[in-house]
Amino acid sequence: MSLEGRVAIVTGASRGIGRAIALELGRAGASVACLSSRQGGCSPLVAEIGEDRAADFACDNADVSAIEATVQAVVERFGAVHILVNNAGVARDALLLRMSVEAWDEVMNVNLRAAFAFTKACSRSMMKERWGRIVNLSSIVGLHGQAGQANYAASKAGLIGFTKSVAKELGSRGITCNAVAPGFIETEMTQNLPAEMREHVLNTAPLGRLGTPDDVAKVVRFLASDDSGYITGQTVVVDGGLTL
User: Fold this and answer.
1) What residues does 213 pair with on adjacent strands?
2) Which of 29, 133, 174, 181 could form a disulfide with 224 if both were Cys (CB 3.0 to 4.6 A apart)?
């Protein structure tokens, strides 16, 4: 599953799953544009991958103009974009009756609208190359819902519908589009899980553990490679069997 000669953009790459994905793609030989919300946010990651094959880019995912400019800067730096991983996301949890319009809009803009803007901007380069891989990070919450996360669940479910539509539109150009739906993964986001919820996952998931960022990253690497060339429009669930 070598990615030599490929250029990848990974959003939300400074930590957690995004960081693991960027490292995995770099190990496979890709040049990686590591994106985060602040300048220098991915500097340690770039140093780990190697400054000859990685670069740090700051981008406000709520700003469509900034997204377009960032993609153009990546193309200028590396010559093309072959792989896009829409990983960046935020959660603003609250019960429906307490959820503000601002919290709804922020989650939708960062989690869903940004994926649309990045995909639209990157697809131009992919169509020129007649080859592309788009991987959208959804969630099992987008498949099954979750009390207190109506905005987050809607954004992640939206990504799945978006994935299927893009797969149908761009397939004839040699571009695949798939989604990955992680379950409970050991990241900063899940460190504050209530003890009873963690215990429920450990007791319910057939594999008996929480996932790791690497569990997700290896699936993304496969979907970004030539080996997945006949897979598109699919959602791969990485949850240790929790939602069976």
Assistant:
1) none
2) 133
**Mean pLDDT, contiguous 10-residue spans, the chain (244 residues):** 95 97 98 96 96 97 97 98 97 96 98 98 97 98 96 98 98 98 87 80 92 97 98 98 93
Dump the DSSP string for 174-230. TEEEEEEEE-SBSSTTTTT--HHHHHHHHHHSTT-S-B-HHHHHHHHHHHTSGGGTT
Catalytic residue among 152, 162, 184, 222: 152
pTM (2 d.p.): 0.96
Cα–Cα distance list, 130 to 97, 173, 200, 221, 222 (Å)? 47, 5, 46, 19, 19
156-to-79, 103, 146, 206 alpha-carbon distances in Å: 31, 15, 11, 24
Cα–Cα distance, 22 to 87 (Å, whole number): 10
The CA distance from 159 to 67, in Å, is: 18
Residue 95 tokens read as 């019960």
User: Percent helix, strand, coil in the chain (nearest 5)?
Assistant: 50, 15, 35
d(CA 24, CA 135): 14
C-alpha distances out from residue 76 to 80, 193, 194, Å: 8, 42, 45
Q: What amino acid occupies position 123?
A: S
Q: At residue 210, what are phi and psi to the nearest 5 degrees?
A: -80, 155
* Contacting residues for 49 by C-beta, under 8 A, at least 6 apart: 22, 23, 26, 32, 34
Q: Exposed (0-12), middle (13-18) or buried (19+): which is 243, by Cβ within 10 Å?
A: middle
Residue 63: helix, strand or coil by DSSP?
coil
Active site residue 230: no
